[in-house]
């Protein structure tokens, strides 16, 4: 079976992390989210994917072209101007002549794809939407359904009081290809705001697949931080290694005997931690980083090739690739990109 990965969004709410790379490529535990999604699909027997791109499309192609050992066939389809989620699905029509999966590419979840597909077939549905129950539905698509598990209404980001349902669209769908004829060609279409309501109006069989496991949309800085904390606490199976409480070291990590690493923490390949430095807890450090003498890094996420100079202090920070944190510098509750401090301040 094939999967379509919707990866063309602007990632505005995740700025400045998305200044140089598209949202699906932000690292989660040191690896681009999209790569982990593809690896998880592969485990469920999906070995061919179509990535639908727009914003910074070349970044995605360049990355995966040098990852040919992934064992998954990847096709790319790029929009000249954003077509919206529905338009992007229609645009990829030529790749699909059988039941297929569609995924938002900014989700970390433990949804069981094989079970979802089995459910879709058993229901003889034309579209099945994976769904989880949440308290605050305002940021999501809300699903109303009958006692047999068929969807009766889909309301994208409803205003308060517009729906009593607490079941939201988890951004994972199974589609029968004949549904695509209902989406107009070469037009900006939202699958959530336009296609789903149209399909329901026309009487298509749309099923809801409820699941309970871990699920998060990583689309804001706070959630980007939360997903790391959750994985480090062992709350999700999205990344196959169990990080709970432990310290996970990549290849060729050098830790000076006087340095301290406090778990849970992840240290990427070829990273060096110098004398009397303290790293952790709840800290993720990427590949080829250098943590300088007597510096302190806690509750932070560092991307690749970051240099933290002597006596620097990082707490509750995100530092993007190639940054240099100068001697004595203190970075707290913020995102540090290149050598400038970003304006966004985190609340957690
Ligand atoms: N190719 C392409 N073109 N992809 C797009 C476009 C586009 O014009 N617009 C958005 N996407 C991709 C994004 O990259 C992302 O992976 C996915 O579609 C969803 O877009 P978001 O911008 O992240 O939407 P959202 O988070 O506000 O809402 C969506 O996700 C929720 C779950 O997290 C909706 O599907 C909601 O119904 C859902 O509950
Ligand atoms: Mg999203």
UniProtKB/TrEMBL annotation:
The keyword Protein biosynthesis applies. Pfam families: LbH_EIF2B, NTP_transferase. It is found in: Cytoplasm, Cytosol. Coiled coil: none annotated. It comes from the Bacteria. Residues 249-335 form the EIF2B subunit epsilon/gamma LbH domain. Residues 2-232 form the Nucleotidyl transferase domain. One of its GO terms (molecular function) is transferase activity. Keywords: Cytoplasm, Initiation factor, Protein biosynthesis, Transferase. The keyword Protein biosynthesis applies. This is Nucleotidyl transferase. The lineage of its organism: Bacteria, Bacillati, Bacillota, Clostridia, Thermoanaerobacterales.
